[in-house]
Amino acid sequence: MGEAATSGTELTRRLYESMWAALGGSADLASTVSFTGGEVLPGPFAVSHLGTASFAAVGAAIADLVSTVTGAPPAVRVDRTLASVWLAHWSAPVGWDRGTPWHGVSTDYPAADGRWVRLQANYEHLRRAAAKALGATEDREAFARAIAAMTADEAEHTIVTGGGAAAASRTLNEWAAHPQGQAVAAEPLIDTTFRDGVVSGALAGWAPTPERPLAGIRVLDITRVLAGPTGTRTLAGYGAEVLRIDPPGFLEPDGSAGGGDLMLGKRCVYLDLSTPAGRDTFLSLLSEADILVHGLRPGALDGLGLGADVRRAAAPGVIEVTLNAYGWTGPWQGRRGFDTLVQTSAGMSTEIMRRGGLPGPKLLPSQVLDFATGYLIAAAAIRGLAERARHGRSSSWRLALARTGVLLRGAGEAPEEAALGEPADSWYEDRVYNFPKGPVRRLAWPTSVERAPLFWERAGDPYGTATPIWATAPNAARTTALSVNQDVMSYRRLHLVVTARLLSGRQKITKKGREQWVCRFWHCRRASYPRRTRPRSRTSEAGASTSGSR
């Protein structure tokens, strides 16, 4: 290994060790991770090193979880070249064109004061809000004229207060001096809260299978591109059942970012959380879940009647992992954000412009704030399972794109290493998979955990096509108590239960009791077999979200 590659590996390890410490992992286990390869993405920032470190954190978390039953953690190896590939590429379509989730108006616009404004408008509701706020039509030329007549700060304020998503360009030093920059820099990389004495019985009795560590684990996913779905996709890859929830009619830009890559291993349901029936179904699902991952802005779930107290009452032992864009403290803690906007606010795109002598800002070669945060989300959830297995306690974990950006900025100048080349066969698995849009070759996973390979058991559902029930059988340790919320998982099963209760001569059913069972029967039938029509997405629900849930 050359001097440059050695330097790059050492930087990657330092970043990984920072992440592992933030996850509360054992220092002894940190040494079980090794690194190979050395091709990286270009640029002054340590993009590949940060991303590779986050892959290592996932591998270490899996090894830690497995060690709860084996005693000794399995070895973990991370290929730095393949990690760089995963940060910049999707699976390769075979015989069809992927297209792009990027809308033409999502770009940088020069403002009147010589600075720039980055507009994020891939979602229709954000594009519409930005146009209305600026008094413009929804096209690139109209946005350019409107922003050119304002200072960058004025345009940012106008768009954001109007319900859109934008960021004024700043330098690295300007962000460091900004109230939000200072606030997020003072936050921990991962803010963790443990709750003792709330996990017992079934949840405490679950144990991982070393060859499929997350088998039997159920994950509720309320996230949007890109960080949240990256994390839950990783959990699915190690065996968890992931049920993604979207408001009725919702679609990611271009149907699904990456041509379906983010949906790997998941089932996807439409659920209107603004209705009593939707909330009841959600709480029923949550009561049997192990992990909840969401990226809703602070207070959004409270506004839907699903605040922390309600969630804990329904599922006191659930592990909850949440993310936002700009941090959990400071004046922007509730601001809608995306990776590209955080890069712009934090001075990264301006720094690349300055160093390259470019005419305008240039983004990092990867949305690494999203990806690294996403893999840390997965690592946090897995660490939560290990804590539950060892100590019988539940936990909450909070992350933010901007705080991941602080770690990237603190890594300093990226060492000179071999640049990642053109796509090669070695990047991909040696088989072709079916995807919703057509066949693809999947990228080879960069992290190897001894005896525990990552793979997805399903291609991933199109949006809103699944039934809001858990599809896998309950873990053997779970309770079998007869109730709608805890054991009865489907209309058909409840139909049998109701029929048995009503008709069995072994148990007397009063008229009032019969009416109660019939009401439960119809409630579960409606929840399990929703109408197949797709009503328009509710703006209030779609607009309540941020990074990972827009």
Q: Could you name the key traits of this structure?
A:
15 strands, 21 helices, alpha/beta, Rossmann fold, 3-stranded mixed β-sheet, 11% strand, 550 residues, globular
Overall description:
The chain is an alpha/beta fold. The protein has a domain at 3-99 and 184-449: Crotonobetainyl-coa:carnitine coa-transferase, domain 1 (Rossmann fold, 3-Layer(aba) Sandwich). Helices cover 41% and strands 11% of the residues. It contains 21 helices and 15 strands. The chain has helices spanning 3-22, 27-30, 47-70, 80-88, 124-134, 140-148, 152-161, 172-177, 179-185, 201-205, 227-237, 276-287, 300-303, 308-314, 339-345, 348-356, 368-391, 401-410, 491-503, 511-528, 539-542; strands spanning 33-36, 76-79, 92-93, 108-110, 116-119, 166-168, 191-195, 218-222, 241-246, 266-270, 291-294, 319-324, 394-400, 440-441, 447-449. The strands form four sheets. Strands 7-13-12-11-8-9-10 form a seven-stranded mixed beta sheet. Strands 1-2-15 form a three-stranded mixed beta sheet. The longest helix has 24 residues, at 47-70. The two termini are 43 Å apart. Residues 476-550 have low confidence and may be disordered.
Q: What's this model, at a glance?
A:
The protein is α/β, with parallel strands linked by helices and 550 residues long. It is 41% helix and 11% strand.
User: What about the largest sheet?
Assistant: 7 strands, mixed
CATH structural class of the domain at 3-99 and 184-449: Alpha Beta
Say what the CATH topology of the domain at 3-99 and 184-449 is: Rossmann fold
Q: Could you name the CATH homologous superfamily of the domain at 3-99 and 184-449?
A: Crotonobetainyl-coa:carnitine coa-transferase, domain 1
Low-confidence stretches: 476-550
CA-based shape:
globular
Q: What fraction of the residues are assigned to beta strands by DSSP?
A: 5-15%
- Count the E strands: 15
Number of helices: 21
Seen as an oligomer or otherwise, the chain set is single chain
